[in-house]
Amino acid sequence: MLDARCPQVYLVSDGTGITAETLAQTLFTQFPNLEPAWHRLPFVQTPGRLASIFARAEAGPQPAVVVATLANVDLRGELRHSPVPVIDVFGEQLERLEQLFGTPAQSVSGRAHGMGDVSRYDRRIEALNYTLAHDDGLATQDLSVADVVLLGASRSGKTPTSLYLAMNYGLFAANYPLVPEDLNSGDVPHMPRGLRGLGGRMVGLTITPQRLAQIREARRPGSRYASLEQCRAECTAIQEFLDTWKVPHLDVTQLSVEEIATRVRDCLELPRGR
Amino acid sequence: MLDARCPQVYLVSDGTGITAETLAQTLFTQFPNLEPAWHRLPFVQTPGRLASIFARAEAGPQPAVVVATLANVDLRGELRHSPVPVIDVFGEQLERLEQLFGTPAQSVSGRAHGMGDVSRYDRRIEALNYTLAHDDGLATQDLSVADVVLLGASRSGKTPTSLYLAMNYGLFAANYPLVPEDLNSGDVPHMPRGLRGLGGRMVGLTITPQRLAQIREARRPGSRYASLEQCRAECTAIQEFLDTWKVPHLDVTQLSVEEIATRVRDCLELPRGR
Fold it and tell me: Which member of A42, A63, A105 has the closest CB to residue B100?
């Protein structure tokens, strides 16, 4: 059976295979006319297991390709026995880096997405707990330890972005919904008590009223909360707040969580490598 | 200035740069004696911007390396002007895939971590909302739509794993804490009402009492909840429950969230590509 439009992609790793999957999916987004069938094969630790994957790839539909992220150098050597084409991600790149830096690569599996550096790992879990406890303005008393506090209207993407930042970068990411009552209490937009003293750690998420109404409508159809009028009033008040208090902000109308998170990291001068 | 131990790594992308960062960090875990300085440079869209990055890399400390994930083929062509070594992730691999499948790669930025496929993106956000609403047994009435329900003791890693599965794979991942009162009501461990009929969608997370006590102790020092005795009793009861009801389970004592998530996906025959 040969179906050139449906390549069989075997994601082979001695770890979780998350790197192989991320890279392969990214590469295949550039071939929108292909519909790859993904075969995730994580935690491959022995030549025998690898040989059985090769047999499966050979016996299955064609075309097939193995995308391998094998940290173990001996296992990587076995890739030469593959009956189908191989993209050996680590082999090619690690050799380049070895030459560049004049130092040999080690050969340890599961470094990237395992426990790895335990203190860094523990910090990510701690950050996630913090973010869950400080979602949606739930707790404002200890925002002082936050790495970042996201501000915006309800349903502007604060919660997913906070969780993403905590999970992936170990950032203590809180978020605070700016509600009209908070903002409209005087001539100039009021700074809610819980947000005072947060200086450069606040980032605003803005969104067009149309898109906001669309998102809210999906959750609470026909509600005042989802009405364009209400969304417009909130967006205006929030923009005024962000301008008055000179809070850096970004328009998230067209952005994914990953794109928002990337830009938030750029907005702040966040400590590196956390 | 030359410090071979601290290579300057320029992560250059016309998208978020998440693929470049994931891959580069994975590669550098194999060089534990190096302490790379990371320079994230996402959303690079013009040759001029690329040229200014090259100038910065050349003027900065050495050694330096550019790790590029540029989907745009013209920008990728500019990489040949780099004054420092380049790892052109896409160029090398996309050419391979073009040859393998006899079809040209397109050249569109931001496909991997942008909105991309909107329905797939919306599903991820929907999944995250579902998971937040069904964390820790908060709501059991609509577990019937869950893709997976994680079972385990309080603090066995259910919440981070659920969020990871929802965020990254768009899985409706609920979780349910098995508490001793739930389990000890008869001769055989009781199946809580909310979990009935979930068939093959339940996965248990087990953990050693020692590790559980350690995690709990960090949160509630000196409590009965964190005592080894209490943890031991809970772990025994949970194991008995999982065995009685033949729920597939995994020991997460040594596993990271990514590793647990990978094994959970393996445990279930989950629909692909969600």
Answer: A63
Q: What would you report as the CA-atom Rg of chain B, rounded to the nearest whole angstrom? A: 24
Taking an 8 Å cut-off on Cβ atoms, the answer to whether B18 and A258 are in contact is: yes
How far apart are the C-alpha atoms of B202 and B184, rounded to whole Å? 20
Query: Would the CB atoms of B258 and A17 count as touching at under 8 Å?
Result: no
Listed by start position, the domains of chain A span 8-101, 118-267
Q: Cβ distance A212 to A231 under 8 Å?
A: yes
Q: What is the distance between the alpha carbons of residues B197 and B151, in angstroms, rounded to a whole number?
A: 15
Kindly state the average pLDDT of the residues B175-194.
Answer: 78
Chosen for mutation from A23, A128, A254 (greatest number of chain B CBs closer than 10 Å) is A23
Q: List the one residue out of A193, A189, A187, A169 whose CA is nearest residue A247.
A: A189
Query: What string of DSSP letters covers B113-130?
Result: TSS-SHHHHHHHHHHHHH
Which pLDDT tens digit goes with each residue over A60-70? 999 999 999 99
Tell me the count of A-B CB pairs closer than 8 A.
Answer: 204
- Classify domain A118-267 at the CATH topology level: Rossmann fold (3.40.50)
CB A29 within 8 A of CB A9: no
Q: Phi, psi at residue B163, to the nearest 5°?
A: -65, -40
Amino acid at the residue B160: P
| Beta-carbon-side half-sphere exposure of residue B81 (alpha carbons within 13 Å) | 14
pLDDT tens digits for range B201-214 = 999 999 999 999 99
User: Which residues of chain A does B258 touch, with a Cβ-Cβ cutoff of 8 Å?
Assistant: 16, 18, 113-114
* Interchain contact, A113 vs B37, CB within 8 Å: no
3-state secondary structure of B34: coil
Nearest to A23 among B23, B43, B254 (CB): B23
Q: Which two tokens stand for residue A61?
A: 């539909």
